[in-house]
Amino acid sequence: MSDETKNAAPVSDSSVQALALTAVCLGFFMILLDGSALNIALPAIERDIGGSIAALQWLVNIYTIPLASLLLTAGVLADRVGSRSVFLWSLGGFTAASLLCAISPNLLSLAAFRCLQGIAAAGLLPTTLAIIARTYPDPIARAKAITIWGATGGIALVAGPIGGGVLTEFIGWRSIFFVNVPIGVIALWLCWRHVRETATRDAESYDVPGQVLGIAGLALLVAGLIEGGSRGWGDPLALALLLGCVPALVGFFVVEGRTRHPVLPLSIFRKPAFSASIANGFAFQFGAYGMQLMLAIFIQSYWGSSALRTGLFFLPFAVLWTFGTLVLNRVWAGRGMCWLLTVGASTAAIGALLCTAIGDSDTWPVVMAGTALVGLGCGVFGPSCNGAAMAVIDKSFAGLASGVLNTSRQTGMAIGVAALGIALSASNSVGGARIGMIFVAACFVAIVALSRRYLNQI
Predict the structure, then answer these.
(1) Residues 6+ apart with CB under 8 A from 332
(2) Can you count the helices (H) and strands (E) in the chain?
(3) Cα–Cα separations (whole angstroms), residue 317 to 294, 298, 314, 375, 397
(4) What's the CA gap between 20 and 201, in Å, rounded?
(5) DSSP state, residue 355
(6) 346 and 234 share one domain
(7) How much is the pLDDT for 87?
(8) Is 327 found in the same domain as 309?
(9) What is the mean pLDDT of residues 230-239?
(10) DSSP state of 328
């Protein structure tokens, strides 16, 4: 790699910055839209190409496992070879895999291409924040850019069920994959033209043992949580996966504490603000994403709603999330990240508690109001979960920090889906949904407590 690339200066031209931000936001939007839209389309896929419910759930899981387990490795790779390079290759791979998913003739091939999507998505997620961190050297401009990035994710999260419902209802489930292709092509062109390569850091070793143990440990953990949630925690496969992750993760941290060039320098966790931000990301994903999936299942399975009606149920959630991110978050930015985290998470906690009134289909207005408050609160505090982590870490470790943050978030989502799925199935449907919403509220309360304790100076 040339000295010019290694010492690449941060981008300063505002138009180039805006186009670079557009490129990474489109990539981020695409991978989140795809995941949330698929949940709505699963019944249609079952009718079209067959497969049991357990097999269909693996269309989600086979994406989540490589995504969660490879994020840390992708973040380190981005710091070593350049975030732009990793982003471009990953975006191209995700776009191609989406096209292959759309034309898949059977469930097996669809699952295989979903796995490729998950691998490519693992390269996209950490590089988006890393590119933003180095494209915007000014802290205020960077905070605004991360807010836009967060709003993009929020819009994708909530547009997925709505868009997925509309596309599935009127065009067919394959359209939720086809729509990724033009988005991906546009993002590739913008990245190629306007995203400059980020600076890289040298290392004598890629810490192969640490990489292997980290990937294996995270993959076994996420797979074990998924299987435990669907098969039951006494199932031999679920137990084997969860037990298998323990020595792998213990070995990972032992190696990282001893090697000269660790893939994950444990010293970064000595910063309480960074550690608190990582924990907040976990709780955020557990609460917001876990709640959405649980309610999507409940509304379709127990209220008997169609995919379209289920998607429309989340419209207030979507609108207020977007409003909270694009309007309130920016209006209140001067109050600081801690204030945004505290007020937003408190609002979301109140909304989750309101959702505990869930019952038969007649309770939909109360539940919809509760989800709307959750969306509003998440829109206010969500960008600060990411911004706080990136604000306290050295920019030469931007890819690593983003990888750690997104690993925490994806693990939180996997545990949230498993835990809330257990709550929904272990008790009667209504009682389980209420227990699940209490868990969601507890996550948002934890964010308030951590933020007030460790992030009050940010």
Answers:
(1) 339, 340, 343, 380
(2) 18, 0
(3) 14, 16, 5, 5, 34
(4) 22
(5) G
(6) no
(7) 93
(8) yes
(9) 80
(10) I
pLDDT digits (tens, 9 = 90+) for 373-428: 999 999 899 888 877 887 777 766 767 777 788 888 878 877 887 778 777 776 66
Is 270 exposed, middle or buried, given 0-12, 13-18 or 19+ CB atoms closer than 10 A? exposed
Q: Among residues 70, 69, 87, which one has the least CA distance to residue 78?
A: 87
pLDDT tens for 165-200 read 788 888 888 988 999 999 999 999 999 988 877 666
Contact 319, 166 (CB under 8 A): no
Q: Considering its fold, how many domains does the chain have in total?
A: 2
Confidence check: pLDDT of 1 > 50: no
Query: How are the residues of the chain apportioned to helix, strand and coil, as percentages rounded to the nearest 5?
Result: 85, 0, 15
Q: Residues 193, 218: one domain?
A: no
Distance in angstroms (rounded) separating the CA atoms of residues 230 and 236: 12
* Burial tier of 335 (Cβ tally within 10 Å: 0-12, 13-18, 19+): exposed
Q: Tell me if 48 sits within 8 A of 173, measured CB to CB.
A: yes
Place of tokens 């269909």: 56
Place of tokens 């109050």: 335
**174 and 272 belong to one structural domain:** yes
Annotate 131-182 with DSSP letters as a single string.
HHHHH--SHHHHHHHHHHHHHHHHHHHHHHHHHHHHHHHHT-TTHHHHTHHH
Domain boundary at 243, 262, 281, which? Answer: 262
Q: Determine the residue type at 52.
A: S
* pLDDT at site 53: 58
In this structure, are 82 and 96 located in the same domain? Answer: yes
Residue in this structure with the two tokens 């290694």, named with its chain if needed: 6
Does 3 reside within a domain? Answer: no
Q: Assess whether 145 and 16 both reside in one domain.
A: yes
Domain identity same for 253 and 285: no
Alpha-carbon span 43 to 296, nearest angstrom: 12
Query: Cβ of 208: how many Cβ atoms within 10 Å?
Result: 11
**pTM of the full structure:** 0.76
Mean pLDDT of 206-214: 82
pLDDT of residue 117: 94
Residue 254's domain comprises: 208-262
Q: What are phi and psi of 437, to 5 degrees?
A: -70, -30
Mean pLDDT over 326-352 rounds to 90
